[in-house]
Amino acid sequence: MYSARAFQVLRPGESAVVPVELPEPGPTDVVVRTTQTAISRGTELLVYRGRVPESQAAVMRAPFQVGDFPGPVTYGYLAVGVVESGPEGLVGKAVFCLHPHQTRFVVPAAAVSVVPDDVPPGRAVLAGTVETAVNALWDGAPRVGDRIAVVGGGMVGCAVAALLAGVPGTRVQLVDVVDRTDVARALGVGFAGPDEALGDCDLVFHASATSAGLTRSLELLGTEGEVIELSWYGDRPVTVPLGEGFHPGRLAVRASQVGRVSPARQARWTFADRMALALRLLADDRFEALVTETVAFEDLPTTMARLDHGAPGLAVRVDYGG
Hints:
It is a single chain. With 322 residues, the chain is an alpha/beta fold. It folds into two domains: 3-126 and 282-319, Alpha-Beta Complex (Quinone Oxidoreductase, Chain A, domain 1); 129-255, Rossmann fold (3-Layer(aba) Sandwich), CATH 3.40.50.720. Helix content is 24%, strand content 29%. It is built from nine helices and 17 strands. The strands form four sheets. Strands 3, 6, 7, 8, 9, 16 and 17 form a seven-stranded mixed sheet that branches. Strand 6 and strand 7 form a beta hairpin. The two termini are 21 Å apart. It comes from Actinomycetospora atypica.
């Protein structure tokens, strides 16, 4: 029997690192020793605060979550580690898995994706975020020369902006109330505060998880433009301004959610295909700009409390040592 330590939300606003027992691996399982994870601030803070609506509890479950909301619950989905045992060909490989913060875990071999040799494992923890961005671009279908805004400069918004920067001829502007000028420059896009953002957009990706951000997204659209809504609001009500120019401009708001492969690709792409693509894209050094802090695994309880109180930054990488 393997043992491990896991980060657990005990109840809203309270967490700890706790010992866990792992199941005996079967012939098609892998045992992974975790080397790094990352905190997905938006979703994980909703879980930490106990803000997951009962109606969405099933949808919000992480693939290898233990426990139920609001707690005790072991949650997370950005993990990289080394395969210690399992099917031939995987042992010793660095792999990504949608697994909570835990020092070691046992999962089916099909649940892990091999990290390409040209992708640093510490950057590979962003694979789930980049996968979300890939799905968003499939949903939004940006075209050559489009004028595009990305409202909300968190992890997902920055990943979307990075991918959009590669579409020829586009005008891409990252928009946030926090000054993300340096990050936007590193990603190869422009930056503006909400009041200075350029309008007449063909497409706006919204990822701020605020009513104000959604309102500004609609204001930035040109006639017959579309907002791709990436935010997850938990149990918070959201105001959508459907007066003024919404109907005359024939504007649209459409949800994008990584839990399903975009309808534009699902006939030909599997979840594994999409994840493999996200990992290949992370060979691009620009994505390193999304990681703004590294903490030790044992410090996760104090780190989450600090993030809950508004600590600045983007992705927090968690180092497991050894």
